[in-house]
Amino acid sequence: MDSHNFPHRRYNPLTGDWVLVSPHRTQRPWQGAKEAVTETRAPYDPNCYLCPGNIRANGEINPMYQGVYVFTNDYPALLPEGPEVVDEDVLYRSHSVSGTSRVMCYSPGHDLTLTDLSVRDIGEVIRVWREQTEELNTTYASVQIFENKGSVMGCSNPHPHGQIWASCQVPSLVSTEIRMQTEFLTKNCLRLLEVTAKREVEDQSRVVCQNEDWVWLIPYWAVWPFEILLLPRFEARRLSDLNQDQTENLAKVLKEGLTAYDLLFDTSFPYSMGWHQCPSGLSAKEEEAFTLHAHFYPPLLRSATIKKFMVGYEMLGESQRDLTPELAAERLRRAMDSGQS
Hints:
The protein is of the alpha+beta class and 341 residues long.
């Protein structure tokens, strides 16, 4: 069967879920909603609570920072302490959770994005990611580094920033990935994402860009049209494991891959991204099975103003996509090549 022209399902070994791929549907006309294109911004906004020297919502004043700046979220989703809650009702269960939520400004420039930063400045962002991971892992089980970019992804402030949440419990999605990677290692004596990186580099049909340490690719089982899985080509479980060369090469592949995003539809590409790192306190087998990786989930489908909607069958059945991952990767590669010419 020609999987590039006929419906088929693809299995996600990281989650155990399936995605319905319907490539023939890309020919259908579109009369749906359009998203607003990103507006230009000034390098400094006196009303932005993340710009240097400005007053935040809680009344504190930001320092006149020149590089990366991290502070505890003024409205954190997690708190360091709270009442102990344990309810093991057969139906309605709840447990207390403790942690911390931090905001990480990538740059003092209000008009920039992570894509706009130089490779050197992206390297500085990664260095702070590493430091935050190392610090928080001594207290909390899980460290989740993520970014919501663009108003279409729910970002309430366009200043270039991400977030760092650390909790005493491991989040559900990470727990699922731990279980699936451990089962794969037990069954095949191979690390799931290590094999994925090698297979994708050999195949190249879903690879957008790569260097000696990292590969930026659309996974075989991708749900979002231009979803990205960023994988190391070496053994690593946490960002704090990276050496200087691996950090520099990560900065380079981030710059290249994110630039391809922006070139695709000639817009500042929105996305939600996050790193999945090995939590602390796992068994030796679980630790051995885990591979550091990052997910990028951008909503855009056909242009800077048309996005993918997760509705209907996706909400009630299973995830579905029209554009194949192979074609999506090809389009990103062509965009990247056009930007270099």
